[in-house]
Amino acid sequence: MKNKVPYFFLILASLLAAAAVILWINKPKSSSDVDKTTIDEGELRKDPNKNKPPITDDINKPVPEPTPEEILEKIGVGLGTVNPLDLLNQISDALNQGDMAKVSTLVGKDAMNIETFKLLQALIKQPLAIREVGEIELNKRVRWAFETGGDDSNKKQIHFDFVGENGKWKIEKISSPDVMIDPNKIKSIVDPLNLADAFVQAVLKQNFDIALQWVDRKSVSDTKIAALCILFEEGEYKLRENKPLRAMFQREDTVGYLANIEAKDGSEAAQFSLNMRLDAETKNWRVFEINLDQLLADYANRVAGGDIYYSPFVKNPAGGETLALYFEFNEDKMSRRTQRQLEIVAAILKSDAKKKITLSGHTDALGTKSYNDQLSSNRADVVRDFLAAAGVSAEQIVTIAKGASQPRRPNITETGEDNPDGRRANRRTEIYLDF
To answer: What is the pTM of this model?
Structure first.
């Protein structure tokens, strides 16, 4: 019995130690500890991720736009196309979407640089018209244009020069043209195709004074420019959309183009040629020759009929060229066609009070000399009166009567018979522009 006492106390001590540990673990929490635990657990129930480290969501971050330089570094050779219009339509669509990366890919690295990038970027989401300007080199190089809306004074153009290779066209160069058809912004032209286009566009719009800016006036008469304005207005011609200006020849200082025009209904009509020359001193191109023969022939076929002759542009027997207005037999009344022609002449004269004209009346050979002299005077006077009513100053007009003394065509045939066609050409008033 005596030997079992130490074991009893050892067991008791172990039990007491275990009880102390249990009591410490289950010790009641203080009020501050209870409050903190309750708050933490409540916050966790509200926001389970409250105490978790923040997660960076790269997917939803906006991707920065690439710089022009970054876009240009990645582009290839560009798209080749059978028809330049198809490629320009794709570029126009990409511009409308504001996708300059796609625009650059379509254009290609040879034609796209920082300067051209900015030219095209300025067209983003703008309404664009696309037109063919003409050939730079026959069957080899061609120019097309983007044009923004608005009148000529604020219209913007971007030119695309294409080169043809293996049956496909590729953009070779993009540029802003060096001319706009605006009376207040006339400047020199250093590109012959731009010159031809600017001249024809001015004539189409009856901008006589603008058209004069682009011609060598020592070689091309004001009368010929006025006649061209009349032909386009009265014949209701327009520049053909497909190959409007075709290259004929290219030399270092002379270039020739064939202007293709068509009737109002879209049927093919005629052509006239323009030859340009580079001035050695000013380095500017100017039109120095215009051939209207084919256009005049087509015009004659379109308006022929009745008892009135038809060519508004004739050679003056005394030298130079004149406009001609025609009358029916024994008449001094103007036709509606003649009045339309005079409306153009009136606009030309009213643009500058210093411009003067001489009106000469003519008749055929039928009738007495005194009768024909009076009839020719009446024909000159009726033209003068129309111009005066249109606002032309009397000081700008001189009238003379020639009677039957200056026939333009023979009044009789070689066998002595009456020549009605010849007489129709002689019943006229000629307008000599003394500019």
So the answer is: 0.73
